[in-house]
Sequence to fold (341 residues):
Amino acid sequence: MEQRYKAEMIRVLDARLAARSFDGRAVLLFGHCNATEETADYLLSRYVTPAAILDNSTAKQGQNYREIPITPPEIVRNYTAENSIVLIATRFFAEMSAQLRRLGYDGEIVQVVEYNSFAEYSLSDDTLRRKTARMMRGAETLKNIRDQYPAQHLIICPNKALGDVYWAMVFLPAYRAKRGIGEVAVVVAEDGCRQVAEMFGAGRIVTLSPTEMDEFTQAVIYTREDNCIFAHHDRPYTDNIIKYLDKHFMSFIDYYRFAVYCLPRETEPAAPANLQPFDGGGTLQKGHSVILAPCAKSVTQMPAAFWENLAAEWAARDTKSARAYTAARRRYAEPRRCRSR
Fold:
């Protein structure tokens, strides 16, 4: 969500919090999306826990975001105007409000933010003025990068996503070999992505903030900078080929191999060449350690209980394995007695 939309969302929620609109009422969010997640995050930071996220997608129903269940919209029939309120943070406010009314909901429905992404592509004077200012700031960032790296091929990783940068770097050596590319400079968003690029020995790295990266990306596209590649799997960098996944399965790895870098099928991924020692290595035992990674922004979050149960299950397995291993060592350590005939 852009900062101006986020500021509007916070303004609306703060006004509701000040008016104590949520006291004694179940807060329902309608439509699972990034803006809804940011709304939930802000409410949780202010000690308001939404009761549910309503969504029409059967694929999302039954999942959770930060332990907030994602449910069918029909559950609004369990609530009344007195004990609930529905917040909507998408551009389909009118349609979604009408759906709730058709379901019989007569409670308050609030538009948290008028988030209309299509307005960003209009030809209104305001849009043209803002987009021009963005592009000019991005062009200045591009100029500064080119002043520092005038001839290097830019490898642009436009999203603040560690996994995306990892796979962009995995196939970068093969891409350079295929195209005969010499020196490169990698452009990433924020420090975590920089560290991922450093794992692969990238020496020339430019780190931008997410806002700077958005503006820089717009400038690169607008000026048709050609000595570069957007090393990313999503639109508009690969002609929206990610939609292919909706009809025909293609692994995330193959998106980078084929769609991003246009490499042959037999191309093998490169391993990180610049790994740093793990400080806690002494606490991990080979064959007796499992690393759980519970956070990913591209999927709905599993409830905390899921990870707690998973950790407990693996701990129990390890305990059983340790006991079996100790018993086996004792058996083999005992002196063998030969039977007399």
Summary: The longest helix spans residues 304-333.
